[in-house]
Protein 1
Amino acid sequence: MKTRPDPATDKQSGGRGGSVQPAPRGAMTIMDRVGAFSGAAYFIVANAAIAIGADAATPDAPTGQESLDALARMAANPAAQAAISIEFLAFTFWMTFIGYVCWRLRAAGWVAAVALVGGVVEIAVKLGSAAPLISGYSLRDQISPEQAAILTQMNKADFMVGLLPAGLFVLCAAIAALRTKELGRVLALSGIVIGAGNIVTASVSGVNLPESGFAPAFLLILVWELVISLRWGFARNHPRVRAAVSPANPVIS
């Protein structure tokens, strides 16, 4: 029995253990573009829902009574009700985009898998954050201002908690893109900084929620996802992904 290096393995890895080299490129299909542009679709549809459902009479930090008043105005405004349904549609695009990103970066190995976990958890948190709003709307004539205030605060808490998995998704996706050379160094490194920044924001905030219930760091996540969505969506080619193999694995002959 003797061992010899596998030439194919050594070619793929470039002689560096576990490194990922660019794979041959193939033409983008319609389905590839659907996956890539789903990120831009999420950004557009989600912001349209926010614009349609915006209530200028509700302050950033409403009291319980102000929250009840906002629910009453929603009940009298079909457009505001439709905005919630539109936002659910936006989440469908977001789920599609997360799946596409992690599929495209799968050659990076476990880092891409962690990005998928972060994206799935973020979607779960965002969908869960709708429960207090829907419950408050359904029971608006039965709950007290104090109960309305609790539901509003739960919605804020869900958003801040969501910064953690959202940051993890961007951080790991950017690392995977850097390893597979799916993105340029500037865009990949900016994703690493943005993802890590959101993780730190969520960790430092802890139980101390900002009064507005919003973190500007999350806007950077949305912009980063929009940029890579457009970059990949308008690209002429995409790589035929192949997994990296370490040259340390011998071929037995």
Note: DSSP finds nine helices and four strands in the chain.
Protein 2
Amino acid sequence: PSPSTFTRQIGNKGSGADLARHLLDRFELHDVKVEQTEGGDHYDPQARAVRLTAGNYAGQSLTAITVAAHEVGHALQHARGEALFETRQRLVGAALKGEHVAGIMLVAAPLLLALTRVPQVGALVMLIGVGSMALGTLVHLVTLPVELDASYGKALPILQDGNYLHEGDLPHARKILKAAALTYVAGSLASLLNLGRWMAVLRR
């Protein structure tokens, strides 16, 4: 359907899931699924699925429409092979492996220290833990521009240019996207502060 057709549907019965499916088909991403989830709104690149929470999947609110467009933005980043998106995916994989290794080392540290009686073992384990934390912080920092692009480089222009919103809704859609972006900013700052504290401990 054309953008104008879907605009009329939003006024009557269009939901977040309806818009997501419409936009994916519009950009010829027919193989990307739209699914309901309890795990938070997100795009899963492995499953190639836009997943929306119940309220945004079936809901017809401005929030539901805006969130759906944002997650479709991630699907577009993936389909186009955009560098930041691909970098983030690689870093997430590395961070998960790093957390696994760090977890094993932290559990094994007391035993290793008891067996070897070498104080440097504890320092090595702490260094590995901080290294894993640094990788997680890097994921946060790369995630921020990826999220901003999905919101302001993809979702907002799509909603605006395609005339998917009612008159006067655009400023509110911006506020919804800004509020979501601020959560990632806060997460990045918290991760940086936490890493900084551990780096200070290592320097002592």
Note: The CA atoms of residues 96 and 166 lie 42 Å apart.
Protein 3
Amino acid sequence: MNGVHDLGGMHGFGKIEREEHEPVFHAEWEGRVLGMQQNVRRFLNIDAFRHGIERMPPADYLRSSYYERWLASIERNMIDLGLIDSDEMEARVALLREQPDAVLPPAGDAPDLSQLLPVTPVSPPPPAPRFVAGDAVVAKNVHPVGHTRLPRYARGKRGVIHRAYSAQTFPDANAHGLGEQPQMLYSVRFDGRELWGEQAEPGQVLYLDLWDSYLDPASS
């Protein structure tokens, strides 16, 4: 998916600020968001979770912290799955904005949510590997509207297969409830100057894990 979240290789965001003795959480609510994410994993796979972050409005994404993005994805996916209602969410936010110390209502008996568990389609067997270590490849120059793990800066760039893994869940399908649809996964070695041009440091290389359908054989 092309969006502001795909920041790899972009300039102008300043240096990464390294915080000495950085705590695991900077605020109590961040730990709660982590707990929420762990609890919704039976409804939400990791690829759908990532796609929820990608669908944040660009301005919201850029001004949000790490766990604010997690929370936005949880909210969006839970609404999409019918686990919560958007009006209910807005009403709760409005209440807590006006009354930060408002007491939560009693939890009551846990509802039976088994009927809301997603049904995973059966995936076909993975296709046979097309590449082996040493093969020259080129990353496809594609611009999907859905989730993808093919970074924008690598599209259309030539690389070499460094290592062939095994078949792995294809995130572009899994994020949209289409099943795992496993494909071969490869470690692909790219020369820095192929990716960044002459400004790349001499001898700089980058290894990317890319799925089979992201790649084409490189012409000689």
Note: The chain has a mean pLDDT of 90.
Protein 4
Amino acid sequence: YTEKLANKMGITNVKRTIDPTFLYDYKQSVLNRLVPENYLLVYTYGFSEESIKAVQMFASNHDLKIVATGSNCEWGDINPMVSPFEWLSLFKYSTYVVTSTFHGSVFSIIFEKQFAVIENDSNKVKSLLEEFHLLHRKVNPSNNLTDVFKDHIDYNYTNIFVDERRKQSSDYLLSHF
């Protein structure tokens, strides 16, 4: 989206790179597991009542605790106040992730999680999901969480795209800056 906007402004020598969040190996920075039970991680700034009920039903049907972060989700089972590295740990050890955010999607991909994106029409999120062939992770009225999670992400396939974009972006940034 930013690339298209720059082109509209007459800036044509734009080189698209991967989001810098992908350029660091967070797996080395993660702390120990914070939640002993299996859980569904929710990272959002807010969901509608309909989405909350869908998350609760999915968690209940799969015997998962709901760990919510990003905003105060009183409807979750656990709403921890965490440091940045503890936040990463929540992603690493989650069974599933439901998010409405760009970085929730990014860290789901980094930690190879089965995830769903709900209530987000962000161009940034859409571009990310398109880039890595993950548009099917979006939940809308025609599908639901169970359907999205039944369609497992093949991270062997997804990581090919991620690694290719990392290399292209790193090569470009290191040769120009």
Note: The CA atoms of residues 37 and 65 lie 7 Å apart.
